[in-house]
Amino acid sequence: MQAEGGRIADRAALTASKTRSAVDEIIARTEASARRGRRLEVLTVDNDADAVYVALRIAREKPERLGVALSLLLRNGGNASGVGIGCIGPTGEVYPDAFSRMVTFGNVRERPFGAIWEDLRHPVMAGLKRRPRLLHGRCASCPALPLCNGNLRARAASSTGDFWCPDPACYLSDRELAEAAELLQRFGRRPEDSSTDHRKG
Ligand code: SF4
Fold first, then answer.
1. Nearest CA to ligand 1 atom 1
2. Number of C-alpha atoms within 13 angstroms, CB side, residue 9?
3. Is 32 a residue whose pLDDT tops 90?
């Protein structure tokens, strides 16, 4: 739990330029590994804005791969807390994900997991499952929602106390979000179409 909290704080504390450099380094190492014939599957975890950044880089550097990349990123659909990802703590408490321990939906010792998970009477569960997701501020009006889905709510909540406020670890500029909007429009997706498969988990 402490390690998870630390990991969230570490990502929030990084400046936008350091986050970008870190993601660039991960991309460079992954590409180098692929050139050596070793295909890696990389999970950056807890900053879904990375999907937008990766899409923009592919659009600039490998436009011929953009269609495939966007279709995979859209299928992934960004943050899946409370939808395709959940967490059951050691005492049976059900959380939206491993980081969001400030919200519990119930306890599997009292109700089956399925009943807890589908119960939209809990306002946070209803807000997470809504499409577009219940969000405030910059995330609510973000044109890249189909790729990011509002990023990590646990970090937003731990920085401001508001579970639905913008994620402070978003490192994308307004200009980049506008570029992402243009890409998505080209592929026929709008923020209000941000329903996703969320098959990861
Ligand atoms: S503004 Fe919010 S929804 Fe948009 S990319 Fe940044 S974190 Fe994601």
1. 139
2. 7
3. yes
